[in-house]
Design goal:
alpha/beta, two-stranded antiparallel sheet, binds magnesium ion, 11% strand, 7 strands, globular, Rossmann fold, 234 residues
């Protein structure tokens, strides 16, 4: 394999399973909010990994055979952040920051010409609430990130971030100089759809071997080894 040197200009971090584990709180809040809006509680749990909040909500409503999906969806998406914020203390108590993350974020921050922000299926408000619970919110400029509130299909989100970057930083970044970091096959699909490179980390629900089989640009068990992680950017 020839060695192409890429300088990553923009790092796009997934949240759940990549930066933090929010415990079971987020899943439980989906159940509570859906129950309050529709009158019934989901009896099965939708697999959430790598999906956007609107996508997860729609899957629940379809499984539950809710009649007016669009209005229920809108109401749930408006209510979710309120419910999540009210239970932010539970995220802090039950969740944790994944190994090596603080040091990895420091490492990227110290690189000249590289910025890091978020690319997550969370609604922007939920992203802020989750990261604030772990005191990680000050690490990112949310304005240049891309969120589940921007599109229900994660594969649309790399261009959203790049457009925000162009508008707010007056800088055009070619997609191949973007590194998407995530923990699920959906993160890779999102990176590929956007022409970005992808680092998959096995700190979520998908195992290292499963991730490696997908042949992302990089795969790591976790981000504990900061210098090995930073090499993926250079
Ligand atoms: Mg994830």
């Amino acid at each position: 394999m020839g060695k192409l040197l890429h300088m990553t200009q923009l790092v796009l971090w997934d949240i759940d399973g990549t930066l933090v584990h929010a415990g079971n709180v987020a899943g439980e809040i989906f159940n509570q909010t859906i129950e309050r809006v529709t009158g019934s509680r989901p009896t099965v749990q939708v697999r959430m990994s790598g999906k956007t909040d609107p996508q997860i909500t729609r899957e629940y409503l379809e499984l539950m055979k809710i009649k007016d999906i669009e209005s229920a969806l809108e109401e749930i998406l408006q209510t979710l952040p309120v419910d999540l914020e009210r239970q932010q203390h539970l995220i802090r108590e039950q969740g944790w920051v994944l190994p090596g993350i603080h040091s990895a974020l420091d490492g990227v921050e110290a690189l000249e010409g590289v910025e890091q922000t978020l690319l997550t299926g969370n609604l922007e408000k939920n992203a802020r609430i989750k990261l604030k619970a772990f005191d990680l919110d000050h690490r990112f400029d949310f304005a240049v990130g891309a969120y589940g509130s921007d599109h229900h299909d994660r594969r649309e989100l790399v261009p959203v971030a790049l457009e925000r970057y162009r508008r707010l930083r007056a800088r055009v970044i070619p997609p191949h100089e973007v590194l998407v970091i995530g923990d699920s096959p959906n993160d890779l699909a999102c990176a590929r759809a956007g022409g970005a490179r992808c680092l998959l980390v096995a700190t979520g629900r998908t195992t290292f071997d499963e991730l490696r089989e997908l042949q992302p640009d990089f795969v790591m068990a976790n981000l504990e080894d900061t210098s090995a992680f930073l090499e993926t950017l250079l």
